[in-house]
């Protein structure tokens, strides 16, 4: 008897974003350690607030 499919997938390590910890969908062609959002490298400095204090 083969092990059940569910058991097989259960034993696989879940891919998690190294930054935010979001569980990522399996992407065979992608070996990134961060999710798409984090890998997007959108630079949002904590001190940067585009919506406020733009009164120049
Ligand atoms: Zn992430």
Topology:
Blueprint (H helix, E strand, L loop, with lengths): L4 H7 L24 H4 L17
Number of strands: 0
Give the overall silhouette. rod-shaped
Low-confidence sequence ranges: none
The secondary structure category is mainly alpha
Average pLDDT rating = 72
Question: Strand share of the residues?
Answer: under 5%
How many helices does DSSP assign?
Answer: 2
Largest sheet: none
Question: What sequence of helices (H) and strands (E) makes up the elements?
Answer: HH
Helical amount among residues, as a percent range?
10-25%
Q: Which hetero compounds are present in the coordinates?
A: zinc ion
Compute the CA-based radius of gyration: 19 Å
Distance between the termini: 73 Å
In short:
The protein is mostly helical. It has two helices and no strands. It has helices at 5-11, 36-39.
Structure in words:
- It is a single chain.
- The protein is mainly α.
- The chain has a domain at 8-37.
- Helices cover 20% and strands 0% of the residues.
- The protein contains two helices and no strands.
- The longest helix has 7 residues, at 5-11.
- The protein binds zinc ion.
- The site of zinc ion (ZN) has 8 residues, from helix 2.
- This is YhfH family protein.
